[in-house]
Design brief:
The strands form four sheets. A six-stranded antiparallel beta sheet has the order 2-1-11-10-7-8, with helices on one face. The chain has a five-stranded mixed beta sheet with strand order 4-3-5-6-9, with no helix packed on it. The chain has a five-stranded mixed beta sheet with strand order 13-14-12-17-18, sandwiched between helices. The radius of gyration is 21 Å and the shape is globular. Helices cover about 30% and strands about 25% of the residues. With about 300 residues, it is an alpha+beta fold.
């Protein structure tokens, strides 16, 4: 997984979210925050010029050290909206690519300013599109595109009820990135975001369609495995650990070594409730950490 920089700019991390349509923008367009502070907030683009930056005078304030005072500008030009970088230190990105000069935005484009990700929604039935996007934000983590903790907890209760009803297996993996704070400290938070996104992608590529991958905490993921017993879950956990260990994670020209520790648990006569399953997996994750990290405990 690579995160190449352009010049002195930091490579940014964006997510891929389904486009609302491919129609050109209109004056009724808006930006929606899908990652960062003010999650879900909508900014209507009603003015001919809208400045994004760290300055208190900016039209859209993004108060982060990695954001310049006047970072970028949105320009309405007839039926289109263009994004122009204002010579910012870390650059402005659209769909994970740094922009040169200005760029005409399309519906669904993702704009990265510092660590904040905006989704561009063009005119038309903008309220319906906005509410659809807000609904997605209640179930999906904007950075990694894994499900969020709220969705996982609802799914866990549903799956446990189904397993009790039909006497089926259910297993859980709790996955924690080893020494993640050191990654942020040594390479920066943008690199940490990149690693989280790439780890999620690596794990997702090794799961079944019916498995539920979620971001459980800051650097912690979980996988709910319907109709899988403890032995099968432990085998998948070990494969996942090896895949992450062997994967190359690069950001801004630096290779970042990444490993994970995994705790595994499955429903039994003694572990019948969701909270019990999570507790057992968490205890085994702690044992994997205590045992030296980059391990699986089941």
């Amino acid at each position: 997984m690579r995160g190449n920089a352009k010049g002195q700019r930091n490579k940014t991390i964006t997510t891929v979210i389904s486009k609302i349509s491919d129609r050109p923008a209109s004056r009724a367009s808006a930006l929606v925050v899908i990652y960062g502070h003010d999650l879900g907030r909508k900014f209507d683009l009603a003015k001919s010029s809208t400045v994004i930056g760290r300055s208190g005078k900016a039209d859209i304030l993004v108060d982060q050290d990695s954001v310049s005072r006047n970072h970028a500008k949105l320009l309405l030009d007839g039926n289109t909206v263009r994004l122009k970088d204002l010579g910012s230190t870390n650059g402005s990105y659209v769909n994970d690519e740094p922009i040169e000069g200005d760029i005409t935005l399309r519906n669904g484009d993702l704009i990265k300013i510092g660590r904040t990700i905006f989704k561009f929604i063009a005119g038309g039935n903008i309220e319906a599109a906005y509410h659809d996007e807000v609904y997605r934000l209640t179930t999906v983590d904007g950075l990694t595109q894994a499900f969020n903790r709220r969705y996982f907890e609802d799914a866990l209760e549903r799956e446990i009820s189904r397993c009790h009803r039909y006497a089926r297996s259910l297993a859980l993996l709790l996955i924690d990135l080893d020494r993640f704070k050191a990654i942020n400290d040594n390479f920066g938070h943008l690199a940490g975001d990149h690693v989280l996104k790439c780890v999620a992608s690596t794990i997702r590529g090794r799961t079944r369609r019916e498995d539920i991958l979620a971001r459980y905490g800051g650097e912690e993921f979980c996988i709910l495995l319907p109709e899988v017993d403890l032995k099968g879950a432990a085998a998948l956990a070990e494969k996942t650990r090896r895949f992450v260990e062997k994967e190359k994670f690069e950001f801004d020209g630096h290779e970042i070594p990444v490993t994970v520790s995994i705790g595994v648990a499955a429903l039994t006569d003694k572990l019948r409730e969701g909270k019990d399953l999570i507790k057992a997996a968490d205890e085994r994750l702690f044992a994997a950490k205590k045992g030296g990290r980059n391990r699986v405990e089941s």
